[in-house]
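User: Please run a holo structure prediction.
Assistant: Happy to. Please share the sequence and the ligand.
User: Here you go; the ligand is 4'-deoxy-4'-aminopyridoxal-5'-phosphate.
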Amino acid sequence: MTAGRGRRYERMHLSDMKGYTPGTQPGAASIKLNTNENPFPPSPKVMAALANVSARALQRYPDPIASGFREAAANLHHVPLDQIIATNGGDELLRLALTTYVDPGRAIGVVTPGYGVYSVLSHIHQAPLSPVPLQEDWTLPSSATDQWNDDGAQLVILTNPHAPSGTLFPFDVVERVAANFSGVLLIDEAYVDFVEPALRYDTTALASRYPNILLLRTLSKGYSLAGIRLAYGLGCSKLIAPMLEKTKDSYNIDAIAQQLGRVALEDRAYACLCWQQVLQERRRLTSGLEELGFKVERSQANFVLASPPRHSPSNARELKDKLQDRDIYTRWFDEQELHDRLRISIGTSDENIALLTALRDLTCAAS
Ligand code: PMP
């Protein structure tokens, strides 16, 4: 008999765990509105930099601490370099935050529903979640911080704008959590670039005032670079140093990502134009869905969460499947509180029109 046949090698606590399953990857010609990417291409300056990547950059190890990219991020936010860490996507920053600030067995505060990766990481790290269900209008219960403190949480992850609702916790709510929570508050701002500028939501100043705040920013959404896996954390140097010096992988950002990321941040004017267009499309898509009878949450992100009209012959899951039959991909979550909703990324104008046309067909079929 072959030694070890039939034996499981993974650690016991992983054996019954379900991993995070990202949205399906359809063909290039499909309308892909299921993983909240930017519908517009990266800056032409980024594409030019890609064409100029040297052989040497590929031959040698990259800068282990991504100084050039971090410098661009530090300049952008007017903070010193030691307040920035570059990570392999926002997901790596989340993992680093757990391994750096949370002892196994201690709690991690989150709100529910939320980004599925949080619970997967908590399971791997054997640090239980302390979940606070959001209220029906997606606001944070006033007791949330007390619960997290009482549960002994060492880390709270607050997604703002929240995913999957897209709603924004107001600045003063975030500040109150930072002031009253005894551990590290990671504000996952993956979608912050799509907040209406008129709301003047900007937490970078907060991060200078509260030494327990760590901001997560990603280039996947706002800068159309989901394919290169690049994000950064911003916080006081005491929070950043242990991740930068001890817990990150030795060369966590590849040479191409470092170069392109820097160019992308420096061409903020291009990114801002894309954000404006996404905001315009978000308004159009929201009113188009509402005209069809959908209930749409007030989103400040590059996606909307929408419940199908009462008269619709198909529920949300069926709609997701029927859209997929027409090569349009949206997201449905197998979680009780999200069952009657579809999460739809904001696409280009043509994509949003195609989606609305298909939904008009599908929801009015039997009415
Ligand atoms: N946080 C949230 C809420 C997200 O939705 C995502 C991406 N799906 C991330 C973080 C991580 O994004 P990335 O790893 O692409 O930077």
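The chain has a mean pLDDT of 95.
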